[in-house]
């Protein structure tokens, strides 16, 4: 447990004792439950406690609760029973809220809220049963009345206080300091006014609009804070005998039930504020994600310098013209928007394509036939530039459909292969004495073909989805965010990330294999390299149940190398371990300092699914993925380990993998000892 986490837990436990004692000691006369005992804080304390420390905190809670009731002069057996009930209630809440493998799950959607509400209800019910049984056995009040009163107050406490320990999110949109001050002032003022008069009971309903406004405008956590503030003010004033819930008629009720209307009011506030704030946060998140995806899609199109991308609507009119298309064809986007792609092809080219496809030599027939080819099929088309020069592009034409399957246009991705075709024609005329040069060019060409084929296969579907769904958003097909829109944006995100990762890996591998590229090297501290790499990897662990440890020597370990490449090496090995280690496993990244027999060693050890023996020989081969990677649907392009191998080779090191299939793996990188020096800290 970290120091900050321990301090936070200690503060919560102090609040549990302090507020619990105040609640028990100042309970209304005749009450047997401890008015508004902060049971929600007890549940929250267990929720933020690391798993291995839960038994210790769970053992401390009944002692704290017992002390609060005992000091308040409750019978010893009642104090003990109530302490047990509060602890059981907290354990039930923690168990239910941790059942989805994300210990402090965020309130992202209605399913999360339903799960949260169910956990609060069942936890409060558990506490109420124990309180009722304890009261009945000890003759301390009427058992069923104590149970009802405890259930109502505990449910209000769980709903309001436990929400502070969750992870509600929602970007702040236009909510400035002035509005925040006004919102807090209004909420506090209205609450105080509503609970200082019994002449106009209906004023209490004026508390809900300010809470609703904050839920609508402010970040969700601030709405939770205001809800807690309303609960504290209303409970304090009601306990002091003022406000609409201290009416003489209510005071004639059984002591256990006198303040139930006020608790019901707090439940109503919680059931209005929390779902409303969550719904607004969902909409803000969706809108923010849409904007980010739109910007990312635009950057992707802008960065695709080697591939021309042309999009059309359902009538074939151009509505997307990438910078690469502008560079290859010589037109500006303004010159082609709204025009038909027919402008790029001659009658002779349409006739040639018609013969290949076996259709009538009309533009519509040829385009329809090309769009019906198997996905990913590339055909060579001649495009006429603005200056009249013909260029040959290897083109993939893909139809775009919306989520209802309706055709909305085409997207064409084209690679300018004119120079390649001319080079091939020249090579065919070369003399036999140039076989070595020709063989080299063919080898280069084959590598290029493999690169283009792989990238085109991975690029086609993401680009189609990105452009298709982006057009739907821009054309206003969707209104306010709905499930279909969320699904569309999720697809955009998934495909964009997949594409960007693949392109980045390919470019990195290409850079490492380029013998002519100059590299800047210098003294690098491997402890700092691993520390920076872990900062990149740790966000991928937020929704995983993995133990992740880093073991570094006390002294710096300095080698001569390239800091960025070494950081990428560690990131790739650690990310690979995360991907292939199921939840509940453990990953250790360690650095072993150099000794007299070897240089420094970087190790990444996991308890994952392991590597089959037959796959060991191909493990560091480009694009190689084991059968288990496909079977477990582990994402990736098969380039991570090949990049790690290339970086190791660049540093004259050795990389090896040891694995026991089904039990885990160890990847070990040994760097040369001659390039290492130990630095003693001053």
Itemize the secondary structure elements and their pairings.
Blueprint: H1 3-25, H2 39-47, H3 54-71, H4 76-97, H5 110-138, H6 143-161, H7 177-194, H8 208-217, H9 220-239, H10 248-251, H11 260-303, E1 307-312, E2 318-321, H12 323-329, H13 333-336, H14 347-357, H15 363-371, E3 379-384, E4 390-401, E5 407-416, H16 418-428, H17 435-474, H18 483-513, E6 522-525, H19 526-537, E7 547-551, E8 557-561, H20 563-579, E9 586-592, E10 601-606, H21 627-631, H22 640-650, E11 654-660, E12 664-670, E13 676-678
Parallel strand pairs: 7-9
Antiparallel strand pairs: 1-2, 1-5, 3-4, 4-5, 6-8, 8-13, 9-10, 10-12, 11-12
Helix pairs in contact: 1-2, 1-3, 2-4, 2-6, 3-4, 4-5, 5-6, 6-11, 7-8, 7-9, 8-11, 9-11, 11-17, 11-18, 14-15, 17-18, 18-22, 19-20, 20-22
What are the salient characteristics of this protein?
single chain; alpha+beta; Beta-Lactamase; 22 helices; 682 residues; five-stranded mixed β-sheet; five-stranded antiparallel β-sheet
């Amino acid at each position: 447990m970290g120091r900050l986490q321990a301090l936070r837990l200690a503060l919560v436990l102090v609040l549990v004792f302090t507020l619990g004692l105040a609640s028990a000691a100042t309970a209304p006369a005749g009450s047997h439950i401890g008015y508004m005992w902060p049971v929600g804080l007890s549940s929250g304390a267990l929720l933020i406690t690391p798993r291995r420390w839960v038994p210790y905190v769970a053992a401390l809670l009944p002692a704290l609760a017992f002390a609060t009731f005992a000091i308040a002069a409750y019978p010893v057996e009642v104090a003990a029973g109530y302490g047990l009930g509060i602890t059981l209630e907290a354990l039930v809440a923690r168990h239910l809220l941790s059942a989805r493998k994300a210990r402090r799950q965020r309130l992202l959607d209605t399913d999360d809220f339903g799960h949260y509400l169910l956990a609060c209800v069942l936890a409060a019910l558990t506490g109420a049963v124990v309180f009722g049984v304890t009261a009945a056995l000890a003759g301390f009040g009427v058992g069923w009345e104590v149970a009802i009163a405890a259930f109502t107050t505990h449910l209000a406490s769980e709903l309001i206080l436990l929400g502070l320990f969750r992870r509600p999110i929602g970007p702040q949109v236009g909510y400035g300091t002035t509005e925040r001050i006004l919102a807090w002032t209004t909420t506090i003022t209205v609450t105080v006014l509503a609970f200082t008069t019994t002449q106009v009971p209906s004023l209490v309903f004026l508390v809900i609009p300010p809470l609703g406004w904050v839920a609508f405008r402010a970040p969700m956590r601030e709405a939770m804070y205001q809800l807690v503030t309303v609960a504290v003010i209303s409970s304090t004033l009601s306990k002091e005998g003022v406000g609409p819930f201290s009416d003489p008629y209510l005071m004639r009720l059984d002591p256990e039930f006198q303040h139930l209307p006020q608790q019901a009011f707090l439940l109503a506030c919680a059931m209005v504020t929390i779902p409303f704030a969550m719904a607004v946060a969902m909409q803000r998140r969706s809108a923010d994600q849409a904007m980010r995806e739109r910007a990312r899609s635009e950057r992707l199109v802008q960065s695709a310098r080697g591939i021309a991308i042309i999009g059309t609507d359902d009538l074939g009119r151009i509505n997307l013209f990438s910078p690469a298309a502008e560079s290859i064809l010589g037109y500006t986007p303004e010159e082609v928007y709204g025009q038909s792609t027919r402008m790029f092809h001659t009658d002779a080219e349409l006739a040639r394509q018609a013969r290949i496809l076996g259709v009538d030599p009309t533009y519509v027939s040829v385009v329809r036939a090309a769009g019906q080819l198997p996905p990913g099929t590339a055909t060579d088309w001649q495009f006429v530039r603005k200056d009249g020069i013909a260029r040959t592009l290897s083109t993939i034409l893909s139809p775009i459909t919306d989520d209802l399957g309706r055709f909305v246009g085409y997207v064409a991705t084209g690679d300018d292969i004119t120079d390649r075709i001319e080079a091939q024609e020249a090579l065919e005329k070369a003399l036999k004495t140039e076989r070595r040069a020709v063989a080299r060019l063919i080898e280069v060409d084959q590598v290029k073909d493999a690169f283009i084929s792989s990238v085109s296969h991975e690029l086609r579907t993401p680009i189609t989805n990105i452009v298709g769904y982006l057009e739907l958003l821009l054309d206003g097909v969707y209104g306010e965010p709905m499930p279909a829109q969320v699904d569309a944006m999720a697809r955009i995100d998934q495909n964009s990330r997949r594409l960007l990762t693949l392109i980045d890996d390919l470019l990195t591998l290409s850079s490492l294999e380029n013998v002519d590229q100059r590299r800047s090297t210098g003294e690098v501290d491997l402890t700092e390299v691993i520390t920076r790499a872990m900062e990149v990897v740790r966000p991928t662990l937020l929704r995983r149940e993995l133990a992740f440890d880093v073991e570094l020597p006390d002294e710096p370990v300095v080698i001569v190398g390239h800091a960025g490449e070494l950081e990428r090496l560690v990131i790739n090995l650690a990310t690979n371990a995360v991907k292939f280690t199921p939840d509940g496993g453990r990953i250790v990244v360690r650095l072993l300092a150099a000794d007299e027999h070897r240089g420094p060693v970087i190790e990444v050890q996991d308890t994952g699914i392991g590597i089959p023996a037959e796959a060991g020989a191909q493990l560091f081969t480009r694009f190689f993925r084991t059968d288990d990677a496909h079977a477990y649907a582990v994402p990736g392009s098969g380039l991570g380990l090949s990049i790690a191998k290339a970086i190791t080779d660049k540093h004259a090191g050795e990389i090896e993998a040891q694995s026991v299939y089904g039990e885990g793996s160890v990847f070990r990188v040994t760097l040369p000892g001659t390039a290492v020096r130990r630095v003693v800290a001053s």
